[in-house]
Specification:
heterotrimer; A: alpha/beta; Rossmann fold; 9-stranded mixed beta sheet; two-stranded antiparallel sheet; 5 helices; globular; B: alpha+beta; Mth169, Chain: A; 3-stranded antiparallel beta sheet; 2 helices; 33% helix; elongated
Chain lengths: 223, 81, 745
């Protein structure tokens, strides 16, 4: 199976995301923001970083990139998309996911190992977890504070579209301690923390992150 | 209730990476009007009653010492009518 | 002034130029006239003044630094030595590693965020310029007293700047230091170290060879940033009493730099450049004169072709501008098309501004008029060499021995340990390091607060490197010759404690004014000590940086030679961390403790300095490093003893592990008793944790290397118990972690 990893100018974690795809047993395919060619991949990861320096708003300039036009069309037809950190911000700016990621409540960039609780294990990217499972993966961002209006929040909560929540002290002020959400169909997932940095114990705090990528393989094979 | 506006801009000679990135993105999206873009901050300060000269002087001082980093930024204080 | 051409300069020999305002002395100005056979043009004066500044020319330090060459140890590891943008070492398997530290002290005082940010930007470009992918950064920092009002301005700004720039570049920040001392109040030290990796065959040099090859400027456009900054900020002390008159500072654009890195690496991968140089201090003046003098010497540059952000800049200002995120490459004409295509892909501005010529002079024209006609070597390398007066400072005769009360009862031990670990120099630094990305690139094996930062180089072979930076300025103050030796030995110990073998060193030497004979003496002693210890330890110096004029008014900072040691580990999976994984491990101290408190944190907390630095025991340290490397198979955890002594080391270990320990220091065997056992900073010591089944192996290893081995305790429980004093981990953790948030929010 081929999984595309998009590089925007300023993307940082593209090689890490490709490594995680490989660890999961799939073939990573590098995709360039300036082309609308998805190269026949079966899914796409929008990795973390500071695309366009986070200038204007995080993810705002990248959301208008040619590759995103193709991704938006594909996603509406059920194509699996995972946005991590800056990738989540891009998905929000591209309106594939609701809400916005705003400045952390304490105004600082925060890099820490964060415990999350999995609250939806029916998406293409989370089906390998058990419901309520607690996982430990790194988070690192300055603008990870999930915000949306009350109606959207109600919709997300009532439809079970919060896929992961921060456990313990809310690290960035996100509404309802939301760390990640999915779209109605469950093919598009946005997550602030970084599962690609938790794929082995040598370089990460756990191997919990790998399950996001193996989940995709399961759902594609089951498919 | 009155409103005092403080606009803070990077000084013209200081590099503005944010404005520059926006300026480069506009033509890619089909907007061709911009020769250059600079990005700044705007503070809207609500005060009780009409701003007095003394209050404006205080706002100037706050802008000078706090709202703007006068090493790299300039500011303008205005009263919103 | 209208355009001051070479013709004009010849015709108007008596025209008065403001050389003194540009930081040149009268004799230096005369030397320029002798070189040129006429008065310099304004543009030439701009170039000479900035290139002959202390910052660029090393004029005060040069005669001392040559010892690094004279005393260089035999080493096969060094691939590129001092003189290039950064030294390069061979780490095996065809990999070459380049690393270097630089200071950005004065700009960081003026504008902490931008000063620190552009400090990262500059050192990263130095590493990139060698052909390497930058893979990590580290930041040794020094600030005034932690509770001083200005520290609350400077520290958060510096930390945010380092994070803001480094995080955006995708470089893991894996370590560094934060030390507070009153002498840094008006002059914080912001040193930045970057490390990069490449294959041997990909090493690039700053050379302009081949007549007809093109000079290409690429990256950001040129603005009025930091004009004269290198010269004025670094070579003359500046008056801080009028904040409104602060000089302009450079503003960094980390996004532009990230794009420049990827663009350059793609250009290197296709082997499109003959030579390359980054633009830092002295901008185009430095890049063109250094490239030309490292080549055949001849170069023509058409200055009006330089893309400008501010079109009102004069030629002199274009030459001196320190605008960030710019590079200069020498390219064969046949490769220009491909070069430009890659730049276009990354949206990087690239412009041909000149060509290499067969002559031996650097000619710069502006709209067709010749404004610079110089032998490039005279600008880049033939700057003044000063023999500054030196004298042993008088303060050395007024130092007093440390006198401290004994800490013996359980109550006193508990209070003292809690006091020590809450001290700003010892307390938890995660308020700072949580603002840095340590995970990006996915190869970080160890990061602060571990003894060294460790990065995996090859995912298949598991080859890795470790880096540690150390300085003990208080010891350098008391004894500059031995102080720097002790810093280097500590750094080597840190590397070996993590499981890597020390291979090469770099340095960043921060001192007060070289015009003060006392400062100059401490500097000279430091360089002599460093050159000697490198020879004794067989470690090549790959490069370094000297920062002078670090003082507020007449008060110089403590002499602060920061040493960075690079080590190699064949298999990163064998590394040793400072945290134990389980209870029931036996704790040992390697090395003996003595009762010298000079320069220690415990003495500092009591307002004392001491009068006698420890004597470096190179033989002991060498044997200890060997033991540490051979003993990795036994170590469940290991942690060097340095700042704060044994008490700080064991506290850091139990807190990182979240497992307690019961310690029994055999006071009767320690000169100075329990007080020294806990708080003395005797060098050459490490705490290790081993399983009971490994004790015999460790014991015989220690015997074979003749290193003293002392059983000091056992891991387990939820308290740190020391000689009858019991400190619950929750209480210990609170004391350790509350200091920084209380101070800085």
């Amino acid at each position: 199976m081929r999984v595309g990893v998009v590089t925007f100018p300023g993307t940082l974690d593209d090689r890490d995301a490709a490594r995680a795809v490989e660890y999961a047993g799939a073939e990573p395919v590098s995709l360039w923001h300036g082309s609308d060619d998805l190269k026949h991949v079966d899914a796409v990861v929008l990795p973390g970083g500071f695309s366009y320096g986070d200038y204007l708003r995080c993810g705002a300039i990248s959301a208008k990139a040619p590759i995103m036009k193709s991704i938006i069309v594909a996603a509406e037809h059920g194509f699996p998309v995972l946005g991590i950190c800056n990738g989540f911000q891009v998905l929000a700016e591209a309106h594939l996911l609701p809400g916005a990621l705003t400045r952390n409540a304490d105004m600082h960039f925060l890099c820490t190992d964060q415990t999350l609780k999995i609250e939806n294990n029916s998406t293409m990217w989370t089906n390998g977890f058990t419901l309520g499972q607690e996982i430990l993966i790194p988070m690192k961002n300055a603008e990870g504070n999930f915000n949306c209006d009350d109606a959207t929040l109600h919709e997300l909560e009532s439809e079970g579209r919060v896929i992961a929540r921060y456990v313990g002290v809310n690290p960035n002020g996100s509404r309802d301690a939301i760390a990640g959400i999915t779209n109605k169909r469950g093919n598009v997932v946005g997550l602030m923390p970084h599962p690609e940095h938790a794929i082995d114990l040598l370089t990460g705090p756990s191997k919990d992150g790998l399950t996001f990528f193996t989940s995709l393989l399961h759902s594609m094979i089951a498919g | 209730m009155g409103k005092i506006i403080v606009e803070v801009m990077l000084k013209p000679e200081i590099l503005d990476p944010q404005g520059q990135a926006v300026g480069k993105a506009l033509p890619r999206l089909g907007f061709t009007f911009a020769q250059s873009v600079r990005q700044g901050k705007r503070f809207e300060i609500e005060v009780a009653g009409d701003p007095t000269p003394a209050m404006l002087a205080d706002v100037e001082k706050a802008a000078e010492e706090f709202l703007a980093n006068t090493v790299i930024e300039s500011f303008v204080v205005k009263v919103e009518k | 002034m209208a355009l001051d051409t070479v013709t004009n300069a010849s015709a108007t020999p008596d025209f008065v130029l403001p050389f003194e305002q540009l930081g040149l002395k009268a004799d230096e100005f005369e030397k320029i006239k002798t070189i040129l056979g006429r008065r310099p043009t304004g543009s030439e004066l701009a170039m000479y003044s900035v290139m002959w500044s202390e910052h660029c020319s090393y004029k005060s330090s040069k005669i001392h630094l040559k010892q690094f060459g004279e005393k260089a140890p035999n080493s096969d590891a060094l691939l590129v030595g001092i003189g290039e943008n950064a030294g390069v070492v061979d780490i095996g398997q065809g990999y070459a590693v380049t690393f270097k530290a630089e200071s950005h002290n004065h700009p960081s005082f003026v504008e902490p965020y931008q000063g620190a940010a552009t400090g990262i930007g500059g050192i990263v470009r130095d590493i990139l310029t060698m052909g390497a992918r930058p893979i990590a950064v580290m930041d040794p920092l020094r600030f005034g007293a932690a509770d001083a009002p200005d520290t609350k301005r400077v520290l958060p700004g510096v930390v945010a700047g380092i994070g803001g720039y480094g995080n955006c570049l995708g470089l893991p920040n894996i370590g560094g230091e934060i030390v507070f001392d009153e002498t840094y109040a008006g002059n914080p030290l912001v040193n930045a170290l970057c490390v990069g990796v490449m294959r041997h065959e990909d090493i690039k040099l700053a050379q302009a060879h081949g007549a007809g090859n093109l000079v290409v400027l690429f990256g950001a456009k040129t603005g009025g940033d930091g004009i004269g900054g290198a010269s004025i900020l670094a070579s003359e002390t500046f008056n801080t009493s009028k904040p409104t008159k602060r000089p302009a500072v450079q503003v960094g654009d980390p996004f532009a730099e990230k794009v420049l890195i990827e663009c350059s690496l793609e250009i290197f991968a296709e082997d499109l450049v003959v030579g390359i140089q980054d633009l830092g201090a002295a901008g185009i003046s430095c890049a063109t004169s250094e490239l030309a003098s490292a080549g055949t010497g001849g170069m023509n540059v058409q200055l009006e072709k330089v893309p400008l952000r501010d079109p009102s800049l004069s030629p002199e200002e274009i030459l001196m501008s320190e605008s960030q995120e710019r590079m200069c490459a020498i390219i064969e004409p046949s490769k220009l098309g491909r070069f430009m295509a890659i730049c276009k892909k990354w949206d990087v501005t690239a412009t041909v501004i000149g060509e290499v010529t067969s002559g031996d002079r650097l000619h710069i024209t502006f709209n067709g008029e010749l404004i610079v006609d110089v032998p490039p070597r005279t600008v880049a390398h033939d700057g003044p060499v000063l023999t500054r007066p030196m004298s042993r400072p008088e303060y050395l005769d007024t130092l007093k021995a440390v006198t401290l009360e004994k800490v013996e009862t359980p109550e006193a031990i508990k209070a003292a340990v809690l006091k020590l670990i809450a001290a700003p120099n010892i307390a938890d630094k995660s308020w700072v390091t949580k603002q840095y990305d340590k995970y990006v690139q996915g190869n970080s094996i160890l990061a602060q607060p571990e003894d060294s930062g460790m990065i995996r180089i090859d995912e298949q072979t598991h080859l890795g490197i470790a880096i540690s930076t150390d300085a003990n300025a208080r010891l350098s103050f008391v004894d500059p010759y031995n102080g720097v030796k002790l810093a280097l030995l500590e750094s080597c110990r840190n590397i070996a404690t993590s499981g890597a073998k020390p291979l090469a060193i770099t340095n960043c030497l921060n001192f007060g004014s070289p015009e003060d004979p006392g400062v100059m003496w401490t500097f000279a002693e430091t360089v002599r000590g460093l050159a000697d210890i490198c020879l004794e330890m067989g470690l090549p110096v790959t490069g370094g940086n000297v920062s002078f004029y670090n003082q507020t008014g007449k008060v110089a900072i403590l002499p602060t030679p920061v040493i960075g040691v690079l080590g190699v580990i064949q298999d990163v999976r064998t590394r040793t961390s400072m945290s134990f994984i389980e209870a029931g491990l036996e704790l040992f101290q390697l090395g003996n403790t003595d009762d010298n408190f000079t320069g220690s944190e415990w003495a500092h907390l009591h307002g004392q300095m001491g009068d006698q630095a420890p004597t470096p025991d190179i033989d002991h340290e060498t044997r200890l490093v060997k033991l540490l490397l051979e003993g990795q198979k036994y170590f469940a955890a290991a942690h060097d003893i340095s700042n704060g002594g044994f008490a700080a080391t064991i506290s850091e270990m139990v807190l990182k592990s979240n497992i307690g320990a019961t310690i029994d220091l055999p006071a009767q065997f320690i000169p100075g008793g329990v007080t020294a056992g806990l708080f003395a900073e005797t060098p050459g010591r490490v705490v290790v944790a081993v399983k009971s089944s490994d004790v015999a192996g460790l014991t015989s290893l220690a015997e074979s290397h003749k290193i003293a081995l002392h059983k000091v305790g056992i891991t387990g429980g939820d308290a740190l118990a020391i000689n009858g004093a019991s400190i619950p981990l929750t209480q210990l953790r609170a004391a350790f972690t509350e200091t920084f948030p209380k101070l800085f929010g």
